[in-house]
Design brief:
Length: about 350
């Protein structure tokens, strides 16, 4: 499946420029050409990707602290090579290794690969690195290798804010297994990773939450005030009924439908777990982790980028893989795959997808 996944996207990198007009009006788009890789690879560093490359080569510029540091730091470690090439290898290898460790069934992994935004695992984004750290945390938690759990969960929250939520499966594990001596330290590891980044931000900017306060600078209409998701849904309904049907309109529809679909699946799954006698199971902890990942972005007042964030709602893919009717599974896979092909093709040509 992974070989087909890689080859299909390589084919689209060649075909899409002949089918879709180029847009690509995002900051620093011309900087990608300075890394001297073949032009067909340039789209893999679109949007956030070029920011990670610039951070890796020249450090943080103002407001770029919105991007967490571990991914560009690892690129910088091998700066004697081409940073763009290093980033692509880091993403691809991380994704390949993570797929060997994450507790997906073959069917669940197929849903995961087919999902419309899973192509981000091949780009200069943090998705693959976080997926690797997420997978290793769960794997070594199951093996009771707590020192490694501490390291990988700390690094996960040094890569993405949602790494903080790894305290949920760790806490559930200790509540069920009851090895109390290391419990508090290991459970706090994700908070420590975020805390280290906050200390760095306080030292360099005077604001320990600058990763959050700098978000509005990137034009995603994010608010730094708390907004509940019913308000966000109302805002999106206004867009659907009042806005002109251009490309941004369809992305807004995509974002809203993604939220509603994932929220519905997780809610149904939660009802099943609440009726279970063993709510402290690993599957329950993944469910709560998935809910946290889904709801966190909505607090900023938008569903922007949500179709990418929900890649780390594993309970949804596991639930879909266990649907009793194969016909429904196959229909969902078909819809996912078609949307995936469209989303990646437009992303290649510089259209914001997520």
């Amino acid at each position: 499946m992974l070989i087909i996944f890689f080859l299909l996207h390589l084919l689209l990198l060649f075909l899409s420029p002949h089918l879709i007009p180029y847009l690509g009006f995002f900051p620093y788009a011309d900087e990608i050409t300075k890394f001297n890789l073949p032009q067909f690879l340039h789209p893999l560093a679109n949007f956030d990707g070029i920011h990670y490359l610039l951070i890796a080569t020249r450090g943080y510029a103002h407001y770029e602290q919105a991007f967490f540091p571990l991914y560009p730091f690892l690129i910088r470690l091998f700066s004697f090579l081409n940073p763009f090439l290093v980033a692509l290898l880091l993403s691809s290898l991380s994704f390949f290794i993570a797929s060997r460790f994450f507790p997906f069934s073959r069917r669940a992994f197929l849903f995961f690969l087919a999902f419309p935004t899973s192509f981000f695992f091949l780009t200069v984004y943090t998705e693959s690195l976080f997926f690797l750290l997420f997978s290793l945390t769960l794997y070594f938690l199951d093996k009771r290798r707590y020192f490694l759990v501490f390291i990988f969960s700390l690094l996960a929250s040094f890569t993405r804010l949602i790494g903080l939520f790894l305290f949920i499966p760790i806490l559930f594990h200790f509540l069920q297994k009851r090895p109390l001596r290391p419990a508090a330290l290991i459970t706090l590891a994700p908070f420590l990773g975020l805390g280290l980044y906050c200390l760095y931000l306080f030292h360099t900017t005077g604001d320990p939450l600058f990763f959050f306060h700098s978000q509005p600078a990137f034009g995603a209409n994010r608010s730094t005030s708390l907004i509940l998701f019913p308000q966000v849904i109302f805002r999106y309904l206004k867009i659907i009924f009042l806005a002109a049907p251009d490309f941004k309109y369809f992305i807004a529809v995509f974002e809203l439908l993604t939220f509603l679909f994932f929220f519905a699946v997780l809610s149904v799954d939660l009802k099943k777990h609440l009726s279970s006698r063993n709510f402290l199971s690993p599957s329950s902890s993944l469910l709560l982790f998935s809910f946290a990942v889904l709801l966190l972005p909505t607090l900023t007042g938008t569903f922007s980028s949500l179709p990418r964030y929900v890649l780390f709602c594993p309970s949804v893919f596991i639930y879909l893989a266990n649907l009793p009717r194969k016909a429904i599974q196959n229909l969902i896979l078909l819809v996912f795959s078609l949307l995936h092909l469209l989303a990646f093709s437009f992303f290649i040509q510089g259209y914001f997808i997520s």
